[in-house]
Fold this sequence. Notes:
By secondary structure, the chain is mainly beta. Helix content is 4%, strand content 51%.
Amino acid sequence: MAGAKNNPAQNFEGFLAYNRLWFLKDQLAWTIGGGLTNNPGRYLVIQPPGAGAAAFGANPGSRFQAWDAETNFDYMPNDYLTFRVEGDQRQADVGYFAGRQGVTPPSGAPATWRPDLVRNDTRVVVALLFRM
Length: 132
């Protein structure tokens, strides 16, 4: 639904597709996937944290489109321990992700300080997960 100038579209369209493959008696696993989001009107878009929310805005008729791709590799030697290496790439058509300067002003920030919202976010995450 496209909407009109005085009545902008307020809907959410998107999809995610992921696949996980298991190896070595379920001790190794590889996951790959991603998704797309089309959100005219920014209906249901989670606002960036801190001062980023005001900079991002959620005005009716403000478009938001984004995509992401992810892959991770898990090593699970037992039921209580997981070692993970993960790579993520996310991109939006507007500044949405926290940049290097962050979205929370430092103490004593000048009046001209603005949150650093960027369109691209690339991450490599190394994690150790355990449960008790």
